[in-house]
Amino acid sequence: GQSVPESKGEIVRCALEGIALKYRWVLERIEEVIERRLEILHIVGGGTQNQLLSQFTANATDRPVITGPIEATAAGNLLMQMMALGHIASVAEGRQLVQRSFDLLTFAPANQAEWDQAYSCLLRLMGKQVDR
C-alpha cells in the first residue's frame, strides 16, 4: 500500500530508511540474547560518513548514535599495540584516547511515533507479529 519511489532521492531515502529499520530489528535480537538494553550505538569505519543514515539509525532505534572514528580498524590496532607495549593501561584508557583524538559526532533520536509506525509496517512485511 505504499507509493513506489521514483526519483533517485526517493530510492536512496527508501534504502537508508530500510537499513535503519533493519538495524533496529537486529538490535532487538541482540538485546534478547544479552538480556539487557543497549543505551547508545556506536558506528565506526566508513559508514560514519553517511550522516543521514546515522540520523535515521538514531531515529529508528530510539537511541543516541555516536559515529567515528572513520579509520576504526587502524586506530584499534594501534591502541592494542600501545596496550601491549605498556603505553596505555587498559581498553578504557584507549577509549578515552580515541575520544580526545578523533572527531566523533552524536545523533539524537527524533520523530519516534513516525519511526515506530514504519517499524510496525516492516515487521508486518517480514511476517512478524507486532507487539507494540
Helix share, percent = 55-70%
Order of helices and strands: HEHEHHEH
Count of beta strands:
3
Distance between the first and last residues' Cα: 21 Å
- Low-confidence blocks of residues: none
Structural class call reads mainly alpha
Q: What is the beta-strand fraction?
A: 5-15%
Q: What summary fits the major beta sheet?
A: 3 strands, mixed
Radius of gyration, Cα only, in angstroms? 18 Å
Overall form: elongated
- Order of strands side by side in the largest beta sheet? 1-2-3
What multimeric state do the chains show? Answer: single chain
Mean of pLDDT? 93
Number of helices: 5
Q: How would you describe this structure to a colleague?
A:
- Helix content is 58%, strand content 7%.
- With 132 residues, the protein is mainly α.
- It has a 3-stranded mixed sheet with strand order 1-2-3, with helices on one face.
- Strand 1 (41-43), helix 2 (51-61) and strand 2 form a beta-alpha-beta unit.
- Helix 1 packs across helix 2 and helix 1 packs across helix 5.
- The two termini are 21 Å apart.
Features:
3-stranded mixed beta sheet, 5 helices, mainly alpha, elongated, 132 residues
List the helices and strands and how they pair.
Layout lengths: L7 H27 L6 E3 L7 H11 L3 E3 L4 H13 L6 H11 L3 E3 L4 H14 L7
Parallel strand pairs: 1-2
Antiparallel strand pairs: 2-3
Summarize the structure.
The chain has 132 residues and is mainly alpha-helical. It is 58% helix and 7% strand.
